[in-house]
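Retro notes
What went well: the complex prediction finally ran end to end.
Inputs used:
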Amino acid sequence: MSTWANLNLQDSASPLMEQLIFFHDHALLILIMITVLVGYLMFMLFFNNYVNRFLLHGQLIEMIWTILPAIILLFIAFPSLRLLYLLDEINEPSVTLKSIGHQWYWSYEYSDFNNIEFDSYMIPTNELATDGFRLLDVDNRVVLPMNSQIRILVTAADVIHSWTIPALGVKVDGTPGRLNQTNFFINRPGLFYGQCSEICGANHSFMPIVIESVPVNYFIKWISNNNS
Amino acid sequence: MSALRMLPRARPMHLDSSVVMGLRFASGDQTRIMSGDREVVGYGINGRPIYFDSQDCPFPAIRFRELTPEVCAIREKELGDWKKLSLCEKKMLYRHSFCQTYAEFQKFTPDWKLVLGLGLWSLAIGCAITVISKLNLYNDPPETFEEDRRSAQLRRIIQLQMNPITGLSSKWCYERNQWK
């Protein structure tokens, strides 16, 4: 989750999020270089005393400062397109999770396993434990196995919601009457937090999502406990 | 062609309504009206009879002042030996053709003091509004902001190994149970 004074993206828990972070760093580096160059040019104008009174055109420099940005944009475009297609790759998920957005809570269904269903409400601040995270902790977390491909189908029961976990690089809108599907892969255990990302009414800020990533054997044990 | 002949030249225009109604105002007429009686002495920056002081274009298209009898007399004297001109006459000739000297129009103006003053006042007013709002308008922060709850949350963040790669947990040494 976000920690205090966090300016960057959260550390990734998914290989796709790693790639997104790499692309973000790459594009930001190019942007910083351009900004420094333009800032330097503007700064040096303060110290310039020369004026060319007869300046009409400069074909060569105009060609250079047209073609060079096009080349720089290619350096951004190719990694971007590579990542775009990487995010759409087909894989075989081992677990399917359904997430339904309501006003104002999420409900989850594990149809693979004897129809496990539960609602996930935010814990109000006045009922929070001493070490609880305000506006983030929920009563029932979504338990998922790590190192497994997970398919999630997101929908909504009333208005549009959006299911997101920044650490996994996942954000899917839940629209009433529609199933949106995405896949993700968690490569480390822990708790991963997210918050509803589509305005859905008065308590839009108070319907968080928490994924508890556990080793596969713990997940199977949890499923068996919930079944019984 | 008759319309072109009706365009005002470099002479004073008496702009009563009968004259204005009869003329078609073209671009450049306003500059000729402003230049008035002043002598055109060159091309200037764009050919229009405009006066301005600039380091880029040292010689404007028109003189700064119109001809007066005193200046005419000195101009006659200028045709002769320049050593016979007194300093006062040279200055009068300069001021007839130009408004300011290089030293005058290149001087650093005190505008920065006003700008700096306004900027600092705005900053001070903004800070004052922030402090007064914090003291009087806003509610107390939630109880999770208290020191013991924050340290409990931090302990939990470290135990859960959140952001362990470059974030908060990466700064904690788990072997020695202390910050790196």
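What we learned: Chain A touches chain B through 20 residues (CB under 8 Å).
What to try next: split runs per interface for comparison.
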